[in-house]
Specification:
binds zinc ion, elongated, alpha/beta, 3-stranded parallel beta sheet
Length: 302
């Protein structure tokens, strides 16, 4: 049977060691790709040095490998892609889709009464002689797409956030720009990631439309939240995934994803568990919700 090519990816930011929430995303995107006979790429989203932690990129790669999640090809480091990002910014400025903006956060707040950008600098087509960001103009209409798990989702970017930054005042390239350009360059067809990024996806969708790039198929997974309802992250003191035996954590992720690994996989190798997962993967068994409470899951070490 011929199927369309599938190219998936896992794209962590090196802000800290891999925690269980990121492992869950990695497992889901890996298994979804492999169960479709697809490729699975790894991209390090290291374009925000102030938020990064020394050694985190290496630690994440080691952990992903230790858990049997073997990626295809070379890891793409976004920190080495700046020329491509700059070329895209210049192209969007030249086409009139982007503009220069000198507004401060406080000015935006005062003008719009919220953090939504009111379009103040839309006419600014020449580089100002003070520090500036570059923003992409959005439209006052609904962007709508069918998510692999969350169903039909939609958002009006003009009302929710407004024209968004693609290059920051400090000269750093925005996450939205880098992700869209790299997904296109790497030929990504399927993006499987946490629901915490669902809002960002509408910005990505708009940027893809403006640049004439294909829209990948998106699936947003529920994120694991702690007792206070917060997503697990370095800020909420999520524990790093230990580089011990992988099986308890892999089985934990599969159970959180609604799969039903048999007890006989307890103590099995990572390769064995992932093979079972790829053969039995049913995306539609993943809870169709935005979050999963951590306390409803068995602790991996128990
Ligand atoms: Zn402005």
């Amino acid at each position: 049977m011929m199927t369309d090519p599938y190219v998936g990816r896992f794209a962590p930011s090196p802000t800290g060691p891999l925690h269980i929430g990121s492992l869950l995303t990695a497992v889901a995107s890996y298994v979804d790709a492999r169960s479709h006979g697809g490729r699975w790429l790894l991209r390090m989203e290291d374009i925000d040095p102030p938020r990064e932690m020394a050694g985190a990129a290496d630690s994440i790669l080691e952990t992903v490998h230790h858990y049997g999640l073997h990626w295809d090809g070379e890891v793409l480091f976004q920190s080495r892609q700046q020329e491509r990002y700059e070329a895209a910014v210049q192209q969007l400025l030249a086409s009139g889709d982007a503009f220069y903006c000198t507004c401060s956060r406080r000015q935006i707040q005062e003008l719009s009464g919220s953090s939504t950008y009111p379009g103040t600098c839309r006419g600014c087509r020449q580089p100002p002689d003070q520090p500036f960001a570059v923003r992409l103009q959005v439209e006052d209409r609904d962007i709508r797409f069918e998510d692999g798990l969350q169903g039909s989702v939609h958002c009006n970017l003009q009302q929710q956030g407004g024209d968004f930054v693609i290059k920051r005042k400090e000269g750093l390239y925005a996450y939205h720009l880098a992700v869209v350009l790299d997904d296109a360059m790497q030929g990504i067809t399927h993006v499987v990631r946490g629901c915490d990024l669902l809002d960002s996806t509408f910005s990505h969708w708009h940027l893809q439309t403006v640049m004439g790039l294909p829209h990948p198929h998106y699936t947003h997974l529920p994120v694991i939240v702690n007792d206070e309802g917060q997503k697990l992250s370095k800020q909420t003191f999520a524990q790093p995934v230990p580089k011990a035996e992988p099986w308890p954590y892999l089985l934990y992720c599969l159970q959180a994803l609604g799969q039903t690994p048999p007890d006989s996989l307890r103590g099995a190798s990572a390769a064995c568990i992932l093979q079972w997962a790829c053969e039995h993967w049913q995306l539609q068994r993943v809870p169709h919700q935005r979050s999963i409470a951590q306390q409803t899951l068995h602790h991996p070490a128990s």
